[in-house]
Amino acid sequence: MIFDNQLEMISFAEDVGQHNALDKAIGKVFINRKLPEAIILILSSRISYELVQKAARAHLPIMISNSRPTALAAEMGKALNMTLACTDKESELIFVCGENRIVF
User: Fold this and answer.
1) Could you count the other beta carbons within 10 Å of the beta carbon of residue 72?
2) In sequence order, what are the beta bridge partners of 11?
3) CATH (domain of 33)
């Protein structure tokens, strides 16, 4: 799922493969000319470095997942000035990098 800066969902895609699902979601946002408005990517899968690369190329600065990102994904996210977060068992966010982008 991809959300804009008003937290409205602007794209959703499902696929057997997480990479294909992300490609579809980004493609929908691109085709609908809403890529400049896209800001948050929420994944149901673990954040890998390949998914960080795809999000970075689409200029999506915030990625949230339901499990911790891989070490390489966290390293890449930090190097690319992205915000990577995951949920814990109590539905709170754990920020892996880029927490300065979030205002509490």
Assistant:
1) 12
2) 2
3) 3.40.140.10
Summarize pLDDT for 31-84 with one digit per residue, the tens.
999 999 999 999 988 999 999 999 999 999 999 998 889 999 999 999 999 999
Structure tokens at 51: 């998914």
Return the structure tokens found at 21.
């699902």
| pLDDT tens per residue, range 7-43 | 999 999 998 888 899 999 999 999 999 999 999 999 9
Q: Residue 75 corresponds to which tokens in the numbers above?
A: 């390293």
Give me the domain span that covers residue 15: 2-101
Question: What is the rounded distance in angstroms from the CA atom of residue 50 to the CA atom of residue 53?
Answer: 5
Contacts 24+ apart (CB under 8 A), 71-74: 72/48, 73/47, 73/48, 73/49
Quick one: CA torsion of 36, 19, 68, 30, rounded to 10 degrees? 10
Phi and psi at 41, nearest 5°, equal: -115, 125
